[in-house]
Design brief:
The protein is 12% helix and 52% strand. It is mainly β. The radius of gyration is 28 Å and the shape is extended. The relative contact order is 0.08.
Length: 200
């Protein structure tokens, strides 16, 4: 009995000593790279998200809503709000769709697999199967696209395919910038122009 009790006492003393050593040690290891990145959490998450951008034709009273015009409607299955960060942004991890309306209420559509809206710079970063379809049938497909909301300017440095049914052409290239209604665009590099309409 005395031996068992003595062994228990030695085990307890050993465990206590090791515990004290671990508790008194400071972690002076400096973390770098991925270890140094602090986790970032959204301040809010919304499902079945819809946001309508409107513009007032003239100054409205508190009761008047009939004189505003819808500029765009953004819809997404889910959005995460990171306005709690120093550089504020909002993500759309499951994709998004934006319906744009011009002065004649003609609709153009943008879809993407993923999106980030940077609140402070008014820049939207769209990624993954980005497709723009204008009201007159023009179509742009690219893996990534940026939209400058302040200047109504759209640009990409990635490869793209641009289809124009008006003149029956399909253009492949890399890098492009243009305005929202495709009335002006500049391709940085093109790989070819293929006519898809036959002349009669």
């Amino acid at each position: 009995m005395k031996r068992i009790s003595s062994n228990n006492l030695k085990c307890f003393a050993t465990v206590l000593t090791v515990a004290i050593l671990f508790m008194s040690c400071d972690d002076d290891y400096k973390r770098v790279g991925e270890e140094a990145v602090k986790p970032v959490f959204p301040q809010g998450i919304a499902k079945n998200f819809t946001l309508t951008y409107t513009e007032a034709i003239k100054e409205l009273s508190t009761q008047d809503s009939s004189r505003s015009r819808v500029l765009a409607i953004l819809t997404s299955p889910i959005t995460e709000d990171y306005d709690n960060q120093n550089f504020k942004f909002r993500t759309f991890p499951e994709g998004l769709k934006v319906d744009f309306f011009d002065e004649k209420d003609q609709k153009s559509v943008i879809t993407a697999d993923y999106g980030i809206v940077y609140s402070q710079t008014n820049l939207i970063d769209l990624q993954g199967n980005v497709v723009i379809e204008s009201h007159d049938g023009k179509k742009l497909e690219t893996p990534q696209l940026f939209y400058d909301r302040k200047n109504n300017w759209i640009f990409t440095e990635e490869t793209f395919t641009y289809t124009n049914p008006e003149d029956g052409t399909v253009m492949d290239g890399e890098g492009m910038d243009f305005n929202r209604d495709f009335s002006f665009f500049k391709a940085h590099k093109t790989f070819g122009l293929m006519t898809i309409k036959e002349k009669e």
